[in-house]
Sequence to fold (333 residues):
Amino acid sequence: MFLLKMRSTSSKSATVSAKNNIIFGPVNSRRFGMSLGVDLSPSVKQCNFDCLYCELAPSATVDKQSLTVSVGEIITQLQKHLHDKIDVITLTANGEPTLYPHLESLIDAINKIKGKTQTLILTNSATLVNEKTFHSLLKLDQVKLSLDAVSHDIFKKIDRPHPSIQIENVVQKVIDFSHIYTGKLFIEVLFVRDLNDTQQEIEKLNKVLHKIKCQRIDIGTIDRPPAYPVEGISYKELHDIALMFDADLPIHIASRLHAEPNNSYYTKEEVLNTLDKRPLTSEDIDLLFDEKSKENLNDLLTCNEVTIKNVGNLTFYIPADNLKRKRQRSSGH
Ligand code: SF4
Fold:
């Protein structure tokens, strides 16, 4: 879980000073708002996975950090950059942030200075099997857990984990965490061509995702040059995968910016059917519909057969009839 930046690996000591590259941003993220990044491994990649799709260079897995920055140094740097326009302080790393050995003390220290700003961590989920990490993450306002596969073989192929990590244990801890955690939980699944995009793996993921209580499941694909020669899937394939998950799962297609458009023609009936199965945003529509289909959508909006629904920062198109059914269900009729 990373943000790509320039790195230096010159320090030989166990504690490194990285005053200038601990904090990065803020960046405006559609999913999380104005985010100030905190890199918990600013000098070198330290990760318990060696994912095929990683945007950092391949590297041997580790189960703990050998180069660390002090909590004091992180807090000093954070205080210099934190202001009231920041929506979220995002704990991430050049590698896996939960390998940071002082995570709980750091979260406690951030919670004392953050004011109304939310805290978020982006993690590959594997260290949830560690009791201490599990409890530390409960203290954050938002957590994003990655889960690319639930089958042992596929997980090993895509994420290339440290030998101590077993996916069955990780999946169980993700489920347990989701039932205890009171903040906002997001799950992310990244699809890699010919690996976890098979119907069989999607069915298994579907089953597991039903056991996880979360706000949103972001599905995406590779959108930056990967560490190994693997390929992402097209936007159309992502959309087809979104439809393979049960309709009651809060699936959201996250890879739009770099997604390859696949504009096809949809009749009015097909527009309604497509939106009924999975509401779409205007970015989805730009990637999926051709000009004539967009006119069909506009006609449906004009005659109120399709309506607009705002969910958090995102605007979705949804058939009016579908929204009515949802309202009826939620009001108990
Ligand atoms: S979890 Fe995977 S993608 Fe994230 S930093 Fe580690 S190797 Fe890279």
About this structure: The chain has two domains: 23-257, 263-333. The chain has eleven helices and eleven strands. Residues 3-13, 329-333 have pLDDT under 50 and may be disordered. The CA atoms of residues 185 and 214 lie 5 Å apart.
